[in-house]
Amino acid sequence: MSSAATRVTGQDHLWSVTEHLEDILATVRPLEPIELQLLDAQGCVLVEDVTVPVSLPPFDNSSMDGYAVRVADVAGASEEYPAVLTVVGDVAAGQGEQLRVGPGEAARIMTGAPLPPGAEAVVPVEWTDGGLGEGPVSGMRARSTAPEGASGQVHVHRPAEARAHVRAKGSDVKAGDRALEAGTILGPPQIGLLAAIGRGTVRVRPRPRVVVLSTGSELVQPDEPLGSGQIYDSNSFALCAAARDAGAIAYRVGAVADDAETLRATIEDQLIRADLLVTTGGVSVGAYDVVKEALSSVGDEDEEGSGIDFRKLAMQPGKPQGFGTIGPEHTPLLALPGNPVSSYVSFELFVRPAIRTLSGLDDIHRPTTTATLETGKALTSPDGRRQFLRGRYADGKVTPVGGAGSHLVAALAQADALIVVPEDVTSVEPGTEVEVVLLG
């Protein structure tokens, strides 16, 4: 699942954003491949090339509802001088019986049905009188109500070239072709292709299982009444949704009160279903920072690099962070700040790449671009920290939304980009070129 990495520790070490991310990615490893049923494999990464065992389509078949004919029998046909052919029966999709079309004959054929022996082309039913002896028709009558349509004569009003309206055997893919490459993310079209070539299972890296839990005795679940000094738990919902958006199977745990033993027990209970654990809150320097209290000493003394390291990052928002491995399987754990903006920015910078690495994806980062700042903004605490502002991006321009470090959950809902501001910049002026991480 993961391997512990040797990491620099110490309360006085100020980590850069890059250092922290590199430490995470040096520890997290792609999950081991497993064989899954097709629908269970949706969103997973294929780990092997898939070749086509049988051509698609597996036989020459009609692409139209109409009549299978010989080319010579309809040459020169027109509404004034139609070709009159004897209908020898129906050819329906999935029908086992094979008709033969001889000179002067036609077989009524349905879309997807195999082209019968002797036939060279298909004329759409709209080019015929449908066997009614009148002008062109727009369709066929149902066989159950008009079985006589499979016999008698049909007038064909247009000629047809050889192979007209015929899908050739193997015209989609041929036996032996490579259908999908290893590394492909399996979406609906890929699942459909696998089913079409007869694959019921496929070997993939499974979607990571991510457990998200918030900490804080002040947190109340939505729909419950607020007491004095309480707020609703939004972090676990936002981060659980973000984990799913990143491709994970996410499990949300109800908020854990500020009690170290309770938190340790809760985390131990969740390890059985977690490839990655994410906590929010309790990582700063306060007397009630329970995550720090509970997890600072959980490492294995005999395992170098195990345990959770709590550190300060040169970034705002999101300065306090924690990262390490926990439990017998050395499950990665990222401890994020409790401030909703800080936790979400931290998720985008650190957790999302970890999830996508576990998934086996090559492209683990959000797309970035350079944009022109539309409005200026004074920044807080520019003491060598990289700052991340929320923004709205469109047409090469970006506008900051909300403040630099307060809760401002509403600002997250309005933003579709992170504006990356270099260290020691105290304000950004209109017209400044900035790096933008696109969240949409």
Describe this structure in words.
By secondary structure, the chain is α/β, with parallel strands linked by helices. Helix 1 (17-27) packs parallel to helix 7 and helix 4 packs parallel to helix 7 (340-358). The protein is built from 8 helices and 29 strands. A 7-stranded mixed sheet has the order 1-19-21-22-18-14-17, sandwiched between helices.
* Main pleated sheet: 7 strands, mixed
Rounded to the nearest angstrom, the radius of gyration is 32 Å
Provide a count of the helices.
Answer: 8
Number of strands: 29
- Report low-confidence residues grouped into runs of 5 or more: 1-6
N-C termini distance: 29 Å
The coarse silhouette is elongated
Strand-residue fraction? Answer: 25-35%
- Mean pLDDT value: 90
Q: Trace the largest sheet across and list its strands.
A: 1-19-21-22-18-14-17
User: Can you give the helix content as a percent range?
Assistant: 10-25%
Find the structural class using helix and strand composition: alpha/beta
